[in-house]
Amino acid sequence: MKARDAMTSPAITINQDATLREAGDVLAQRGISALPVVDNDGHLVGIVSQMDLIRFNTAESPRAAETESESSESEPMRVADIMTVEVVSVSPETDLHTVAKALSESHVRQVPVLSDTDVVGVVSRRDLIKWMARSDAALTLDVVAVLGDEARHLANLEVSVHQGVAHIEGEAAPDTLGLAAKLARTVPGVVDTRVTPAGRR
Fold first, then answer.
1. Partner of 177 at 20 to 30 A CA spacing, among 15, 117, 133, 150?
2. Is 201 inside a domain boundary?
3. Does residue 115 sit in the same domain as residue 171?
4. Is the pTM of this model over 0.85?
């Protein structure tokens, strides 16, 4: 399963020249934790999160304190002034295991999905949970259906899904089992596959 299968698309983005108030309004109204930041050509240049805005507006933030002391005629702070420029991103073809690892290791709540430098979607923790939450019984039926639709001999394989992992067993050549595993991974909610030739449990 790939990032394109689970991502929210189109992604909600914000221009780097937007004000912090505008960014806060979008985050609040949309109920999301972060926004990919784009330039005038729509290319990703950073990301701004709820935490970025909170940190900026706390008393401990020197930049916030400095801004408060400026006259009301000064230019408002822009998203580009506080955004994170080193962004963890993935491509539409990135495996969801890799996406989950990126979310875990970088401690971010979502990752932009890029086609070249264009933001085509976003995968959040919520997106991953939604796809992983389908019951194993429903996934088993879906995998069996996909295999049967592809070829009759694949329908003879034994399939069971446990915690999103499709286990496939049967008397078949390695390339046939490999094909079955590849097809199983196309089922939304299947996070991985395991193949076992008959008699090798």
1. 133
2. no
3. no
4. no
For residue 172, the model assigns a pLDDT of 85
Asked whether residue 118 falls in the same domain as residue 81, the answer is: yes
Neighbours of 99 (CB within 10 A): 23
Domain with 149, as residue range(s), is 136-196
Question: What does DSSP say about strands 14-15 and 34-38: parallel, antiparallel, or unpaired?
Answer: parallel
Q: How many residues does the chain have?
A: 201
Residues 152 and 190 in one domain: yes
* DSSP code at position 76: P
- Tens of pLDDT, residues 163-173: 889 999 988 88
Task: Check pLDDT > 70 for residue 62.
Answer: no
pLDDT tens by residue, 15-57: 999 999 999 999 999 988 899 999 999 999 999 999 889 888 7
Bridge partners of 110, per DSSP, are: 124
Residues 44 and 37 sit within 8 Å (Cβ to Cβ)? yes
Note whether 19 and 100 are same-domain residues. Answer: yes
**Parallel, antiparallel, or unpaired: how do β-strands 44-49 and 34-38 relate?**
antiparallel
Q: Which residue has the tokens 């923790």?
A: 125
Look at residues 107, 131, 155 and tell me which one is the last residue of a structural domain: 131
